[in-house]
Each structure stands twice: as C-alpha cells, then as structure tokens.
Amino acid sequence: MTDPYNPARDGAQMSFDGRMSYTDYLGLDAVLDAQHPLSTAHDELLFIVQHQTSELWMQLALHELHAARDTLQAKDIRPAFKLLSRVSRIFEQLNSAWDVLRTMTPSDYTTFRDSLGQSSGFQSAQYREIEFLLGNRNVAMIRPHAHRPDLETRLRAELDKPSLYDCALARLAQAVPLPEAALARDLTKPHQPDETMQAAWAKVYRDPAQYWDLYELAEKLVDLEDYFRRWRFNHVTTVERVIGLKRGTGGTGGVSYLKRMLEVELFPDLWHLRTKL
Ligand code: HEM
C-alpha cells in the first residue's frame, strides 16, 4: 500500500512555531468564539451565525460604500462603478443566505425566541448606517443607539455628510446645469422625488453616449437598490413564514412594519424618471 499523500513533500508549510498562521491572521479565535446561544435549542446557533455573517457582509458593504462616495467626489468617478457592483453582489450574497434561515420552522424558532428578549435587527447600527449613507435618513432611527455613545456618534456623523446620492447629484450638476437651490437640502432627511432632478437624469438617459459616466453611475445605483429591495422582500417573507403576524421582538408590528419598509425608495428620481422616458 502506498503512503497517504503528504502535502509537506510539495512544500506545504506544516509548522507555525512563531509564524503567523491562517487562524492568527483571520483572528478566528475571536470570530469563532463569538457565538453564545442562550438556550439549548438546536436552531439558535443557525440564528446567531446568520445574523453575525450578515453583519460581517454589512461591514464590508460599508467599507465599499465609503470608498464609492469618496470616489464620486474625486476627479474620475469610474472606479466607483466597480465598488458599487461589489456592494450589489454583497446584497446578492445576503439574499441567497435567506435560503438557509428559511429551513427554520415556526416550531423551531419558538423554542428559543424568548431568549432574544427585546433585541432585534431593528437595532442593527450597521444596517442603519448603510441606509443613512445611501440616502434613506431618519433621525428617529438613532434613538435605539442612545445607550451606546460610540454608535450614536457614528450615525449622527453620517447625517452631517452628503449621502451617496447627494454626491451623484453633485456630479450630475457638473454635466447638466441645475439651479443652485435644487441641490440645497436638509441632509438629515431622506431624498424626495424631485422633478428638476428627474428632468436632468432624463437628459442623461436620452443620450447615454454623451453622458456615459453618469448613465453608468445611475444604472449602478438602480442595480444596488434593486438588490437591496430583494433583501427587504426576502426578509419580510422569511419573517412572515417564521412568526406570522406576531409583533417583533424589537416592538414594531412585525410584518406590518417590514411591509411598510418595502415602499422605501432610496433613489426615488432614478425610478420615477423611467416613466417619463
Ligand atoms: C427568523 C428570522 C428573523 C425574524 C423573525 C426577524 C424579524 C424581524 C422583525 C419582526 C423586524 C421588525 C422590528 C421588530 O419589531 O423586531 C425585523 C427588523 C430587522 N431585521 Fe430581522 N428577522 C429575522 C432575521 C434577520 C436577519 C438574519 C437579519 C440580518 C441582519 C435581520 C435584520 C433586520 C434588520 C436590519 C431589521 C430592521 C429593518 C428596518 O428597520 O427597515 N433580520 N426583523
């Protein structure tokens, strides 16, 4: 019988005395020690891992979105397209992840739901920061973070900055003249549909060749919102499947609240202008 294959013979590093290993580099001890189910229910680990991995992907989405916003304020906006495509792919990743959670039935969830207390994704600071950065801003959503000054400060700081869409509008204004007043807005509020902006975007869509960068930017933003909307839809469908019409642990009406959120438009002009083309 031949000996089992030993990758060391092909040069695989097998000894890590004093050298950085995979576990060290990725901080896996901390990551894999961060799951602390509060019940003995089998499915609680799934629930925890699903939320934690979602938060990790959101951390990456924020990293890319901050870079995309900076790029929209730089000379050449084209590198932002790649960053925005990546964020869309991240949301697609999160969308596929619902399939795993959907294997948890109401019978499974009720075995540990009480352990959550009043905690809920509603209190996800990263989710709120993504919304604020994109342009869906609502000061009231900062309140659940008042007990964590670091998170509150971060969210408030985001409301002082132009949103990703504000930066897109500033670029639009450089190519298509817009009245100064049209760009001035209260940064703490969500974007509202605006006829002036839609007329300017319509120019871009009627002549893509002349305004190619803006045309591509607009489509990347619509793409991103498209994936974001699918995430919201997958979430509310999973929630209804698991808890029906019960109230949420976070205190909202549950499915009724999440259905209302389906109506949120991140970049309303980019959707409304399509009717006019
Ligand atoms: C069976 C699994 C889940 C159930 C039953 C559930 C339930 C709910 C409910 C009822 C709400 C409304 C707020 C409340 O009153 O609690 C909510 C909000 C939220 N959940 Fe989930 N959820 C689940 C999984 C997830 C996962 C995996 C994530 C990923 C991070 C997540 C993220 C969020 C976020 C970000 C919100 C706030 C949405 C907004 O304000 O627009 N949820 N969830």
From TrEMBL:
<keyword id="KW-0223">Dioxygenase</keyword>
<protein>
    <recommendedName>
        <fullName>Tryptophan 2,3-dioxygenase</fullName>
        <ecNumber>1.13.11.11</ecNumber>
    </recommendedName>
</protein>
<dbReference type="InterPro" id="IPR037217">
    <property type="entry name" value="Trp/Indoleamine_2_3_dOase-like"/>
</dbReference>
<keyword id="KW-0349">Heme</keyword>
<comment type="function">
    <text>Heme-dependent dioxygenase that catalyzes the oxidative cleavage of the L-tryptophan (L-Trp) pyrrole ring and converts L-tryptophan to N-formyl-L-kynurenine. Catalyzes the oxidative cleavage of the indole moiety.</text>
</comment>
<feature type="binding site">
    <location>
        <begin position="47"/>
        <end position="51"/>
    </location>
    <ligand>
        <name>substrate</name>
    </ligand>
</feature>
<dbReference type="InterPro" id="IPR004981">
    <property type="entry name" value="Trp_2_3_dOase"/>
</dbReference>
<dbReference type="InterPro" id="IPR017485">
    <property type="entry name" value="Trp_2-3-dOase_bac"/>
</dbReference>
<comment type="similarity">
    <text>Belongs to the tryptophan 2,3-dioxygenase family.</text>
</comment>
<feature type="binding site">
    <location>
        <position position="109"/>
    </location>
    <ligand>
        <name>substrate</name>
    </ligand>
</feature>
<feature type="binding site">
    <location>
        <position position="113"/>
    </location>
    <ligand>
        <name>substrate</name>
    </ligand>
</feature>
<keyword id="KW-0408">Iron</keyword>
<comment type="subunit">
    <text>Homotetramer.</text>
</comment>
<keyword id="KW-0823">Tryptophan catabolism</keyword>
<dbReference type="Pfam" id="PF03301">
    <property type="entry name" value="Trp_dioxygenase"/>
</dbReference>
<feature type="binding site">
    <location>
        <position position="249"/>
    </location>
    <ligand>
        <name>substrate</name>
    </ligand>
</feature>
<comment type="pathway">
    <text>Amino-acid degradation; L-tryptophan degradation via kynurenine pathway; L-kynurenine from L-tryptophan: step 1/2.</text>
</comment>
<keyword id="KW-0479">Metal-binding</keyword>
<feature type="binding site" description="axial binding residue">
    <location>
        <position position="235"/>
    </location>
    <ligand>
        <name>heme</name>
    </ligand>
</feature>
<keyword id="KW-0560">Oxidoreductase</keyword>
